[in-house]
Amino acid sequence: MIRFECDYAEGAHPKILQKMMETNLEQTPGYGVDVYCESARKKIKELCGNDELDVHFLVGGTQANMTVISSILRPHQGVISANTGHINVHETGAIEATGHKVLTVASADGKITAKQVKEVYEGHWNDVTHEHMVQPGMVYISHPTENGTTYTKPELEALSKVCKECRLPLFMDGARLGYGLKAHGNDLTILDIAALTDIFYIGGTKVGALFGEAVVITNEDLKKDFRYLIKQRGGMLAKGRLLGIQFDVLFNDGLYFELSEHAVNMAMIIKNAFREKGYEFLYDSYTNQQFPIIPDDKLEILSQKYSYSFWEKADERNTAVRFCTSWATREDDVKSLVSDIASL
Amino acid sequence: MIRFECDYAEGAHPKILQKMMETNLEQTPGYGVDVYCESARKKIKELCGNDELDVHFLVGGTQANMTVISSILRPHQGVISANTGHINVHETGAIEATGHKVLTVASADGKITAKQVKEVYEGHWNDVTHEHMVQPGMVYISHPTENGTTYTKPELEALSKVCKECRLPLFMDGARLGYGLKAHGNDLTILDIAALTDIFYIGGTKVGALFGEAVVITNEDLKKDFRYLIKQRGGMLAKGRLLGIQFDVLFNDGLYFELSEHAVNMAMIIKNAFREKGYEFLYDSYTNQQFPIIPDDKLEILSQKYSYSFWEKADERNTAVRFCTSWATREDDVKSLVSDIASL
Amino acid sequence: MIRFECDYAEGAHPKILQKMMETNLEQTPGYGVDVYCESARKKIKELCGNDELDVHFLVGGTQANMTVISSILRPHQGVISANTGHINVHETGAIEATGHKVLTVASADGKITAKQVKEVYEGHWNDVTHEHMVQPGMVYISHPTENGTTYTKPELEALSKVCKECRLPLFMDGARLGYGLKAHGNDLTILDIAALTDIFYIGGTKVGALFGEAVVITNEDLKKDFRYLIKQRGGMLAKGRLLGIQFDVLFNDGLYFELSEHAVNMAMIIKNAFREKGYEFLYDSYTNQQFPIIPDDKLEILSQKYSYSFWEKADERNTAVRFCTSWATREDDVKSLVSDIASL
Amino acid sequence: MIRFECDYAEGAHPKILQKMMETNLEQTPGYGVDVYCESARKKIKELCGNDELDVHFLVGGTQANMTVISSILRPHQGVISANTGHINVHETGAIEATGHKVLTVASADGKITAKQVKEVYEGHWNDVTHEHMVQPGMVYISHPTENGTTYTKPELEALSKVCKECRLPLFMDGARLGYGLKAHGNDLTILDIAALTDIFYIGGTKVGALFGEAVVITNEDLKKDFRYLIKQRGGMLAKGRLLGIQFDVLFNDGLYFELSEHAVNMAMIIKNAFREKGYEFLYDSYTNQQFPIIPDDKLEILSQKYSYSFWEKADERNTAVRFCTSWATREDDVKSLVSDIASL
């Protein structure tokens, strides 16, 4: 079975394991204040063009989301998110478990617009009973989204502008950030993201690391006591250097971007194969996740050799599924898939 | 200004204040174990035809909802509710503040169906990633709903059946229960409700009391330690007898039902007046809340003399509003309103 | 049985019920924005000598404590309290249920000192692992304490000074505030309290009202969105005027202080009776709660006619108990008790 | 600088890294259902002599503690713990953040007794106001404790018996379990622990792994839906196999015990060196943590070459400190330290 069902099926890029081996018996202080974390922080700050950023390393995405969101909101506030947002559907209520409502806005592709944020904000404050409702307190977006779609620079600028006007911190979940930055047609740089969001994270788990998300805080007001929150939510790794080493290697000589580019290229080849076959796509993605709509009898054939994720029934005879590539996807596997698609 | 904007504009039925006066200097133990609470409990048990019920008196609706829901769910569970449910929109995230997600289902009239509950339940358990999603743990309905609509007996029976099959406790918010029981065309008795739900409450605040909701627990499994939860959520009134006295008076000689009937009758007169004028209604309510859609220029005229609640814009020239009656609504005020409607 | 077991055995001062009767059928807006609440707010602001205060009316003490504390702290912060503090022992973990630890300091009499606060604060920040510990975020005191003791003006000034230095908001639970202000030997005025604390409340439940606590916010930073928090925690009374009316009456012509003085005078008579009998006291209280240590055989005699609260066994043959007076205590009952004490 | 300040200064045992390397590019399903997790589970079940156990792998100790505790307690319940317990002092209020109070009992050495548990339990239920207090809902112990002390088999049997009588699940934090099992004089086996506790965990982070704790659930009632809780609290690692591989290696041919024994042997040598020097110990530990009380001038000398943790001032001229060994401690470093101690 060749796996295309997710982007975390393998371990880590060999350079990361290599570095872990080399440094294994060094003695370092715990909890993320070692030299490897420092080095990784320095590289990330340079990459973001801002030395005043705070950078923290957390183990995973749900942990990062709940730690960030609960560190920002007051008890009566909620977080605006697309209804399809990961925090709304796939984190077992982790946000609610910290006491906060996810305020959803409808989204067809996983993205939300500046206009929607404005409407939620004004809808709240214009309602005479607003004290009886959860107050919008921040905005959550994912980039790329859970559907593989990405924000353009003008879209993110518009969101950022509205958020500033409404005093709503803008938080970007970048669990697959690299795949967004290397998406075909993308016009957003990490410099833009650092400038336009208040807090975001650079996903490692799905982009070459064993695990790990680098949370970057750009808004001065959100920095205070963040390490307490990491500890309280269970995210302070004793051997913090494991996270430092991984991001240090990933941001050495652009490895992170190289790996991201590879995954996107592999995905584009697959996308093309499905397109040439005349299949439609559930979402128009240029990142590592592709959502072709496939006749059920053809899917049956593919499933004998390849794994993928079921997404939804498109109609009685067709199914939308997800094929994922990653930094680790082998070109031979893609070639094999493409050939099998062609002969469906 | 004659107020029809809500059903809590006045104090309490005079008999309640009278009884408070008479008993004012009696010394009783605190926290709801006095003779008045006991007497009220006895009457409610009789009314529900079940001596094994637990009855607790709480101060208000949001308090009752959050105390009940957080007493039942485990941390990873959520409560199924109509998207229009009070817990979802008008309690400032009180449920989420106790750690739980409200799992909404779409509703045009405020009600949810057995089919919807089944779908949410099966949708959850059939999803291979269900452990990444909030598990449905109970069902919340309001009767009458926030839109004045009511469940029929077959509808409640169907809900009850599905809930039992799915092991989801069924909780009825009865903040306006009396107005539902006396709704024109209603076929549900309080005996039915006690038999078909696992826990419900009898609203006092909006039906003749100064304040107070009587929570009735019919499901043995939900009874344990409920008083701890009341205390923890801030709902254990030191002078608990104030609640006991009120419900004792309300359930003396059927006062509660008499007051409810009055409000509904007043509402039906108003409904009729709007209908005769040819106005449509946003919801088809036979309870104390009426939602006529009124041309803006006509509404302007009414608003000089009467208060009501804005509900939503129906279109550019018409607005849906809410007129509420209550146990305290004066016949003369209704006559005056009807006459003014007729001459719009 | 004559009850001295608590200070909430009766209803309310008759003037309060009278006013409720008179205003019963008036129509007012809900949720605390009616004319009675406004009038009561105005009187409290005048009393505190500060027109910029925010005043909110809540139903009970536990509700007030949890609403106030959870509105102030960030998730990683806790509240410093005496180990005997009501929030630490008698609120079923209401504070923890909002996510916060109670950071206790040892107290023999229920009070805490400026020195203790300083020690906790410095102990935290001097510990190199402080990020692994709950950060002190505010200070809770009760006045009078659960043991009937009171802070002197110099003590409160010292606490206030340390709190300001450490940027820890100082919160005073005044569930029995009137009895403290009228304590024999007391040198603290309500003006002092308004000047020296950041937030406090004036207890109504135990001092003449049916129920109700008036939360006074003096610190500008703590005012924002407080009504949302009241609603979320279940404390926003639909018929808010019930609270307004009560405090309006209590602060009319000094009724609150008159009632408080009566209770304290009654308590001093009882204290004196026990003292003359040669009994010791568990706490040296000059407020409405008295804690005599009584030989078990003598207590047996008293218990046939009077109720009191068990506090703790002093030794094998003696028991410390609590006798409470209140605004409603009848002089005849006190005389009877005194006479029976004398003849023990 | 030679580090003895903690037991997480190095990476992992080389065999673990080796296995990660070898399996790095294998594709496995995520979230802990891969073959490595299955294999590790099987070994742990065998070790515990019970095939019906549930075994889950979490990333760290605080995460394990808060996930376990919040999965067991109802909202009004708290967890009994020594005042020195890790959950009470060094987890930034993680337990309170899930809504629960830590009910502390005094402990001189970090252990609690069956008698203490019984007293807390009976103290609660005998108090007439118990509904106003947090209900004891489970018991937390650590073995070895934060002070390096360990429970004897009779002590654990007594605790287990009382817990069963009081229906309080017994939870053992085994972050350093290996070092307890290999403590000199220890009479407890992992079979005993699996039989006597309801849930416990086998610490990996401090005993040879990069990170990871294996939670073992022996009580059938506590198993339900545990994976939801792991996900909600942020502990479900996408690449779950990383945890499986580590524990699979650790429980291959007894590596875990071998590593534990090494650390304890190293600690005993250090203990002996201090003892021969005539120094006292703050706690009488036979595990990998040693707490000698050292004259400040001598400590000054040691600190030029060795790191350790400050524990507390013993008196004006002496300080209690902690020296930790681990699976990674080098014999040469210990020899050097012993020699330097001898010549102090």
Automatic annotation (TrEMBL), chains A, B, C, D:
Its cofactor is pyridoxal 5'-phosphate. Gene3D superfamilies: Aspartate Aminotransferase, domain 1, Type I PLP-dependent aspartate aminotransferase-like (Major domain). GO terms for molecular function: threonine aldolase activity. InterPro entries: ArAA_b-elim_lyase/Thr_aldolase, PyrdxlP-dep_Trfase, PyrdxlP-dep_Trfase_major, PyrdxlP-dep_Trfase_small. Residues 14-252 form the Aromatic amino acid beta-eliminating lyase/threonine aldolase domain. This is Low specificity L-threonine aldolase LtaE. Its EC number is 4.1.2.5. Keywords: Lyase, Pyridoxal phosphate. The lineage of its organism: Bacteria, Bacillati, Bacillota, Clostridia, Peptostreptococcales.
